[in-house]
Amino acid sequence: QVQLVESGGGLVQAGGSLRLSCAVSGRTFSRYDMGWYRQAPGKEREFVARINWNDETTYYRDSVKGRFTISRDNAKNMVHLQMNSLKPEDTAIYYCKMEGTLDWGQGTQVTVSS
User: Fold this and answer.
1) Can you tell me the distance from the alpha carbon of 5 to that of 16, in angstroms, rounded to the nearest whole number?
2) Which CB contacts under 8 angstroms, 24+ apart, belong to 74-79?
3) In sequence order, what DSSP letters do the residues of 46-99 get, joined into one string?
4) pLDDT digit string (tens) for 44-81?
């Protein structure tokens, strides 16, 4: 059974930082690209960042470039999202996803106050 469990969300003031983590079990983690997505109230889920399976290539949506950093630890089956200089518009539920599969985590709430 595949499980993706996010953690690290919370309430932070604008300009602050949070580090999200996603622990993965049930698949050979190192074979898959991993992604972070988010969904704000009343909006569709959107792509945030992606890291390829061998940790050599990353992708970001334009609005988070220079502020967010995705990383992975294949030895620990974990993917992280370091979020700096947070803005109120970053408020959303953040999900990790094993790319190429239908496997999603349950999400973690990030709220940025102005």
Assistant:
1) 23
2) 74/29, 74/30, 76/23, 77/23, 77/24, 77/25, 77/29, 78/21, 78/22, 78/23, 78/24, 79/21, 79/22, 79/24, 79/34, 79/36, 79/51
3) EEEEEE-TTS--EEE-GGGTTTEEEEEETTTTEEEEEE-S--GGG-EEEEEEET
4) 999 999 999 887 799 999 999 999 999 999 999 999 99
- The label of the residue with tokens 């334009």 reads 62
Question: 29 in helix, strand or coil?
Answer: helix
Token look-up 């309430």 returns: 11
